[in-house]
Amino acid sequence: MKPLKLGILLLVLFMVLGIAVLRSGEPAPGELPKEPITTKTSESSLPSASPTSAKLTSLAQATKPNSNLATESVASASIQEKVTSLKKDISNDPENAKLLSQLGNTLATEMNAPDEGIPYLEKSVQIDSNDGKVFFDLVGAYLQAGRSERGEMFLNRLLESQPANIAAIEAAKADLLATAGRSHEAQKHSQAAATLNPDSPESASLNGSVLLQNGDTKTAEAQLRHADELYWEKIETAKREGLPIEALEKSRAENTYGLAESMVRNGNPDAERAIGSVSDPKAKETLKRVNAQLRMAE
User: Fold this and answer.
1) Pairwise CA distance, residues 240 & 219, whole Å
2) Which residues are within 8 A (CB) of 50 and not within 5 positions of it... i.e. 6 or more apart?
3) What is the pLDDT of residues 120-150, one digit of tens each?
4) How far, CA to CA in Å, does 99 sit from each of 124, 139, 218?
5) Which of 142, 167, 208, 293 is the most exposed place for a label (fewest CB within 10 A)?
6) pTM confidence score
7) Cα separation, 84 vs 151, whole angstroms
8) Residue 83 contacts residue 89 (beta carbons within 8 Å)
């Protein structure tokens, strides 16, 4: 009898161990499962999903931060390659204003190194001052670097050495001063730029924005409306000539916000319609709220 009892005990023991092994993959009460539980709404139940799709998804989610870091590293490497390539091209053609401006802008905006980009942008406008965009890129780099005073000094010197390009320099100086919180000083420069270049929507828009900052809402509205008309004409011309219009449309959208704001401040009855033309949802809601508050206060 003893061998029989021993055999039964061993059999029971093996059964218990077997059940324990089978249950080892299940979570104990209060524990989270070690693997995702597949349900009717999980990826593995979708028609196009394979039986391992849930595991692949969890792996993708687990490695997502590393994937982002890898993407950022690739992007950073790509920008560095661009900088290296531009520097090489400039070494072969040191007076190429376009290459200098590209390198300066890349360093300032893409690599967040405005102090490194400023000398290239300065040299670019000294060689070729016909590209107004470079002036504003340079102003942006000065402001980004917290060096508005150096920017003002450089533009003053440029004004003396390049009187023929006074309109672009005046506009750049107005932009620099206004962004640095010196809008009252900026006003004479923005007005000069708009007067010297009456067909420029950028100059009209800048002047309107400065006037709006200084509280001259009536004149600002007129200037910003004029800028909107000039932008529309410029966009239509670009369309006919097959030229890109994205940058112009973006600038016009920014001007539209200023125009709507001036109309709100002036109590213009068409303000609501102007607000409807603002593309940015948050800006639109802000203008709606301010307009409603001002109308209630009347």
Assistant:
1) 32
2) 44
3) 999 998 888 666 678 778 888 988 898 888 8
4) 8, 18, 42
5) 293
6) 0.63
7) 26
8) no
- Distances in Å between the Cα of 121 and the Cα atoms of 106, 110, 111, 168, 171 are 10, 14, 15, 15, 17
Q: What's 33's DSSP letter?
A: P
> CA of 16: how far to CAs of 3, 5, 13, 25, 185, in Å?
20, 17, 5, 15, 88
Q: How many CA atoms lie within 13 A of 39 on its CB side?
A: 3
Alpha helix segments (H runs only) across 197-270: 201-213, 217-240, 246-265
In total, the chain counts a number of residues equal to 298
Long-range contacts, 30-35 (Cβ 8 Å, 24+) = none
Output the six-digit token pair for 185. 């000083």
Question: Alpha carbon of 233 to those of 130, 228, 229, 239, 255: distances in Å?
Answer: 22, 9, 6, 10, 14
The rounded mean pLDDT for the chain is: 77
Phi, psi of 113 (to 5 degrees): -130, 70
Query: Which position has the token pair 């993407």?
Result: 71
